[in-house]
Amino acid sequence: QEFYDRQQTILQGDYTKQAYYWFKFEEILWDIYDISDDGMISLISDDVIDSQSFDWSNNELEFEHNGGTSYGCDYAYSDIRLWLNNNFYNQVFTDVQKELITTTTFGVEGDYTTGTVEDYVGILDYNTLDSCELTSTLSGTAYSLIQGYKGLYYWCTNPFQNYLVRNNTFSTSRISDASIGVRPAITVLM
């Protein structure tokens, strides 16, 4: 079992307050949202495991970022996609677990996007989330709460419908809002 130490510095007037947090990393619990005929099981984390912005830019115009030119709301070039497939994927899964994870199509086709992408880990789109019956209470891990998760929303890939509200209605948020939760999704071969 690994522990994570996070130091947080808060400026209050002329004073600096520092807080230290220790987190015990436990295994992620997964909800099944699809089982295919060819033995693939698609999973989404049961809890919100982190709080991240979709893209730090909050740019509503086309611009160059993360290896391409697109809008800030385009999942294919988003900061959240980069974080999920680099930091999260490499820190969370063992080499043995990575051998079971297969690529999945994430993202959506449409205005303000460059289309779908094939990744090992991602976040789901509006239609997939709307069609599956997820039973999560949208509770967040202790780590996600200290990262700023407010307990109500998590990101999906659709531009201008970037997060899911607790009662399964969709709404929008600024893509730089770091208080929105992250529920990673993966597909494993069984």
Q: Would you write up a description of this structure?
A:
Helix content is 16%, strand content 32%. With 190 residues, the protein is α+β, with helices and mostly antiparallel strands. The chain is globular, with a radius of gyration of 17 Å. The two termini are 26 Å apart. Mean pLDDT is 78; it is low at 1-12.
Shape: globular
**What is the tally of beta strands?**
15
Secondary structure category: alpha+beta
> What is the overall number of helices?
4
Give average pLDDT, whole number. 78
Q: Roughly what fraction of the amino acids lie in strands? A: 25-35%
Poorly predicted runs of 5 or more residues: 1-12
The side-by-side strand order for the widest beta sheet comes to: 3-4-15-8
* Straight-line distance between termini: 26 Å
Key features of this structure:
single chain, 190 residues, four-stranded antiparallel sheet, three-stranded antiparallel sheet, 15 strands
Summarize the structure.
The protein is α+β, with helices and mostly antiparallel strands and 190 residues long.
Q: Topology, please?
A:
Blueprint: E1 3-12, E2 15-24, E3 30-35, E4 40-45, E5 50-51, E6 63-65, E7 68-70, H1 79-92, H2 95-100, E8 101-102, E9 104-106, E10 117-119, H3 126-131, H4 142-146, E11 154-155, E12 163-164, E13 170-171, E14 181-182, E15 185-189
Antiparallel strand pairs: 1-2, 3-4, 4-15, 5-14, 6-7, 8-15, 9-10, 11-12, 12-13
